[in-house]
Amino acid sequence: MDIAALQAFVEVADHESFSEAAESMFLTQPAVSKRVASLENELGARLFDRIGRRVSLTSAGNALLPRARRLINDARELKRLVSDLAGEVRGPLVMGTSHHIGLHRLPPVLKRYIGQFPEVELDIRFMDSEAACRGVETGDLEIAIVTLPPQQPPNLRIQTIWNDPLAFMVGLDHPLAGRKQVTLSELLSYPAVLPGTTTYTRGILEHAVRGTGIELKVAMATNYLETLHMLVATGLGWSLLPATVLDSDVHQLQVEGMQLSRRLGAVTHQKRSLSNAGAEMVRICKSV
Predict the structure, then answer these.
(1) pTM score, two decimals?
(2) Is residue 255 within 8 Å of residue 144, measured between CB atoms?
(3) Which residue among 51, 198, 236, 270 is the one 20 to 30 A from 249 at the CA level?
(4) What is the DSSP letter of 197?
(5) pLDDT means per 10 residues in the chain (288 residues)?
(6) Sign of torsion, CA 9 95 123 119?
């Protein structure tokens, strides 16, 4: 069975679109369609229902999907094993990271990594940290460089690389903008714009305010931290964001008794050995 055809099938299933799958694979849409059609012919079953622009898995497609993922991961693991036994740093490295870390932490890391290991086939997938951790757990990702979960997940190994201080901030026109320090109850009397409820960063804030008996007034939520910074700057509410996004468009507030931070680092699976390429990625992250 052709691994390239299975990869095309999985990408279409994940994106629910042939065109988006083609874009993610850097192929033309006809090339992706041809690979899926070849797989359907080999199996003798239709894998997708195509109604207009909507693409959905058939029952056969649903049955194949988890097995296809395992076959792809096994093929990738075999390729990695051969290069690792030779002591080489080459082959595929599938990693996930968040948009924020990709913008603020990884550029110097990737520049050094690519310069030292040009034969590694980097496949970097940008997603929420929580989704990246799930990707490592299911085997879709070998490694994730993300915001680390507050508690140790049962099947994952986490390594702290950076401490990431968090800062309370408001727009320059906010009623609290002229204050250097406020109480937590004063801050919570105003609406906030925050990361989504399922994010690790939101969890840090909710844990910190849990004992006050005051509910957060959330005016808007999004997982894109740069978007939240923009919303704060335009006056839609206060937020708790990484101190790295502080600039002249927002005012930092010191909140009595509140010094919060999060950990950024590497997430790998406890039952999966790290490839030479993955180990070098962690090493360079720690050294930059």
Answers:
(1) 0.71
(2) no
(3) 198
(4) T
(5) 88 89 88 92 90 85 89 77 70 92 94 94 92 91 94 92 96 92 94 94 92 89 93 96 95 94 95 88 94
(6) negative
